[in-house]
């Protein structure tokens, strides 16, 4: 992260402005929503400001939860999030609502995606519905950005959701400033065989104990058998996850998402234009896979955060993830009103927060200005 911090800090405000213009030069100045693609519905958990159902050409209806004030998006950082298997947007909402994310949350808007059929208390998807591939889902996410008039966003995805967002970044590189990929597996061979052995005979309407156990392993990894987590905390996490699987999520639709994940094609991230932050934990079942992916990519475009003694990094290490997320976003010219971790905030009383949000090389620099430097001592 130190390397990324110094490299990004060397950009002047004018260079950041030109970079932003370059990334958005192909975006129409006024994005028009298609009149038939959405309707507004109340958010059942009351955790988000608005909820939309957006119809896409190939993926069908996608439920979209907006957390934050999108009318202020020109002054805020906009995030697009996609969840993992066995959960829905609520896992991302829980991360955003953690105390470590409070300052970022105040200055941002979050667009949380529910994969088709994963909204709470969803009915079975009809037999006539062809569940989309991860590639199709990734390509169709641009419909959501178009409808909400989002010129560009920073993507945050976990597991299967990270794979979807990475494909979105490859298909629409000018719409995503950067990609934050948590436990993103690029190769199909890394996990496909293990999934097939657990889910090949999944025929019923419910999730069996074996299937549930593997979804728990996919989510928490070796953390469930490690002594790094307090027993009471471990029991609480597992009970909460099992409650979601057995409660308000539809097991039939979960099965369709799992099959799409199993049948996905290799994700080729070489040459990906948006910058990438890879995140994993040492107790994740995909830790070694993430390290291998990191070594294969352009080091000028990718950074990795590996958290010790953690499997579910978003739930167990939100502070470390938030720090890395902040530095990553500041490298894209976002959230510049917040000081980087370990750097004291210095803001003039005469300067408004709106003025302070404008990129300024002196605020981002990790070295003191000439005026702040101590006088030279004559020897």
From TrEMBL:
Superkingdom of source: Eukaryota
Pfam families: Ndr
InterPro entries in UniProt: AB_hydrolase_fold, NDRG
Family the entry assigns: Belongs to the NDRG family.
Name used for this protein in its record: N-myc downstream regulated
Species whose genome carries this gene: Bombyx mori (Silk moth)
């Amino acid at each position: 992260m130190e390397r990324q911090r110094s490299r990004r800090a060397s950009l002047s405000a004018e260079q950041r402005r030109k970079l932003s213009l370059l990334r958005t030069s192909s975006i129409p100045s006024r994005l028009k929503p298609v009149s038939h693609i959405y309707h507004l519905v109340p958010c059942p958990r009351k955790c988000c400001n608005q909820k939309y159902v957006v119809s896409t050409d190939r993926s069908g209806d996608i439920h979209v939860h907006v957390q934050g004030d999108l009318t202020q998006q020109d002054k805020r950082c906009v995030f697009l999030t996609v969840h993992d298997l066995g959960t829905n947007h609520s896992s991302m909402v829980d991360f955003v609502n953690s105390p470590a994310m409070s300052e970022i949350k105040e200055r941002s808007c979050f667009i949380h995606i529910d994969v088709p059929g994963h909204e709470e208390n969803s009915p079975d998807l009809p037999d006539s519905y062809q569940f989309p591939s991860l590639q199709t889902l990734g390509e169709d996410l641009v419909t959501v950005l178009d409808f909400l008039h989002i010129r560009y966003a920073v993507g945050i995805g976990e597991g299967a959701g990270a794979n979807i967002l990475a494909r979105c970044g490859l298909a629409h590189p000018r719409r995503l400033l950067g990609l934050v990929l948590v436990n993103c597996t690029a190769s199909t061979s890394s996990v496909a065989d293990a999934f097939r052995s657990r889910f090949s005979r999944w025929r019923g309407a419910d999730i069996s104990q074996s299937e549930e156990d593997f979804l728990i392993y996919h989510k928490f990894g070796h953390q469930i058998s490690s002594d790094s987590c307090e027993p009471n905390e471990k029991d609480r996490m597992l009970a909460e996850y099992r409650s979601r699987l057995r409660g308000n999520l539809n097991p039939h639709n979960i099965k369709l998402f799992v099959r799409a994940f199993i049948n996905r094609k290799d994700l080729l991230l070489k040459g990906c234009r948006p910058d990438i932050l890879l995140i994993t934990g040492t107790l994740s079942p995909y830790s070694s896979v993430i390290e291998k992916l990191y070594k294969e990519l352009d080091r000028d475009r990718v950074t990795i955060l590996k958290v010790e003694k953690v499997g579910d990094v978003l739930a167990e290490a939100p502070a470390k993830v938030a720090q890395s997320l902040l530095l990553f976003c500041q490298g894209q010219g976002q959230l510049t009103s917040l000081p980087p971790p370990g750097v004291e905030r210095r803001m003039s009383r005469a300067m408004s927060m709106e003025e302070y949000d404008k990129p300024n090389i002196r605020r981002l620099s990790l070295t003191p200005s000439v005026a702040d430097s101590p006088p030279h001592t004559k020897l």
